Amino acid sequence: MDVLWSPWRYDYIKADENQKKTDPVSCVFCEILKSSESDEEKFILHRAEFNFVILNIYPYISGHLMIVPFKHLSALDQAEKDSSNELMDLTKDCQRILKDAYSPHGINIGMNLGKAAGAGVTEHYHMHLLPRWVGDANFMTAIGETRTIPESLETTFDKLKTRF
Questions:
Q1: pLDDT, tens digit (0-9, with 9 covering 90-100), for 65-78
Q2: What is the mean pLDDT of the chain?
Q3: CATH no. for 9-161
């Protein structure tokens, strides 16, 4: 097996480990909302009434967005109707914005509810949107089990922020 070094991932892995030791009920999305950092520093693109749109800071591909409710809930069926309606409206807005900004061939939209479903954050549900292109899962992903992201988070943020 080949090794591709990605030392920036260590902060992510260690932060999660340390967070569980010091505060087992801590939530990454709630922590982002409590942070004194600016929306730009936290890559929050838009705040609506019940939900916010944020870049995934560990994206699968450039333009990987998440829509997250302000309310800390683990499942969509726990949300009030106004919140879930807004989430779907934001999903449509994000789909349009990603199409305008990136001209993808397709867009993945979805949620992973629960650990068995692949949720990385199980306690706070959220919607993912990822622009996709034919052939974007190249040899690096298929064989090397590594993704290449051609755009920095700052560039992605700047490209999308003005569209909200």
A1: 999 999 999 999 99
A2: 85
A3: 3.30.428.10
